[in-house]
Amino acid sequence: MNIIHRPEWSIPEREATPEDVFFNRRRFMKGVGAVGLGLAAGGTGLMSSAFAQDGKDPTLNLYPARRNAEFTLKRKITPESVTSVYNNFYEFGSHKRIFGAAQALKIRPWAITIDGMVDNPQTIEFDDLVRKIPLQERVYRHRCVEAWAMAVPWTGFPLAELVKYAGPQNSARYIRFETFKDAEVASGQRQFWYPWPYIEGVTIDEAMNELAFVATGIYSKPLLKQYGAPVRLVMPWKYGFKSIKSIVKMTLTDQRPVSFWEKVGPGEYGFWANVNPKVPHARWSQATERLLGTDERVPTQLFNGYAEQVAHLYKGLEGQNLYR
What is the pTM of this model? Predict the structure, then answer.
């Protein structure tokens, strides 16, 4: 007798809502409030107003972007049907099935503030920013600190291009990223014991590395809300919590940021959070990882398989806690 062991994320096919039904319902609900949202948006531009009126993402014509052949994998791409319903997004809860709750996030209008030690401080509408830097698609590994992993095709642009656009001053050493704060739509932010909003940080050198990526899309279309729409960070050699979602602010500074999980659990999480199979989490091993959508476990790779591109960033820092 064959016994089928379904992964923890699995639900029976008959219980799954078809994608077109799910999103058409959301578009209808957005349409009901279109007039009010359009008035509230004020001077945010025609593209944001169009999004409010017909429910369509005004950046759809930017996808699919050209795939960059320098950033591909031998590992099989994890199906969207799996990754779209298995997400960490603590703003909407501490479980993995937040994709429904995340649809409450209003992603238009959406502005990003760039400030700190920069020559070009500004607040820019996302729909304008996404057109300033050519988009490309890259296939990256993604490794969660919880020891599950996936491979997905992100669309976006190098973080280095955004840093250059900001005009970094010589004194800047770090970049502090901040996500939205709206407890009315994000129920997880009502949990007062967490230090909202979500904060993350990287060094300027890490940001300028060729792998550091600003994602605006996934699977050849704009990001769905559960992935961190409309714009998120992707740092593929680090544990996934470093790849902050739904960014609203980028600050260049000479002070090292204290990130969300550093505040929550300083004994378990640090600033660097680079993947290393030989350095266990305080409560579990990191030697192997489970490939999302399967029961397969494979060996974890140093820097998530990107050591050749990033190991040099940490020369001389061996005394620091680089891997937690």
Answer: 0.84
Q: Judging by DSSP bridges, how do beta strands 148-158 and 288-291 pair with one another? A: parallel
215 in Cβ contact with 233 (< 8 Å): yes
Is residue 117 classed as helix, strand or coil in its secondary structure? coil
- Angle ∠(272,119,130) on CA atoms, nearest 5: 70
Token code pair at residue 139: 């296939």
Helix-helix angle 19-32:34-41, to 10 degrees: 60
Residue segments in the chain with a per-residue pLDDT below the cut of 50: 1-54
Q: What is the pLDDT of residue 3?
A: 39
Encoded tokens for 145: 């600190």
Per-residue model confidence (pLDDT) at position 38: 31
pLDDT for the residue numbered 56: 85
Q: Hey, what are 249's tokens?
A: 């602010």
Alpha carbon separation from 198 to 20, 179, 180, 204, 222 (Å, rounded): 31, 6, 8, 20, 22
Q: Amino acid letter at 44? A: T
The arrangement of strands across the sheet holding 111-116 comes to 122-125, 111-116, 247-253, 174-179, 199-203
What is the pLDDT, as a whole number, of residue 9? 32
What are the tokens at 172? Answer: 């800047």
Residue 296 CA to its chain's centroid (Å) = 24
Tell me, what's the pLDDT at 55? Answer: 67
Q: What is the Cα Rg of the chain in Å?
A: 20
For residues 91 and 187, give the distance between their C-alpha atoms in angstroms, rounded to a whole number. 7
* CB-CB contact of 318 with 310 (8 Å): no
- At 198-227, the pLDDT tens digits run 999 999 999 999 999 999 999 999 999 999
Q: Give the residues across from 179 on adjacent strands.
A: 247
Q: Is-contact 30 55, C-beta < 8 A?
A: yes
Asked if 214 and 159 touch (Cβ cutoff 8 Å), the reply is yes
* Paired residues of 176 in beta bridges: 201, 251
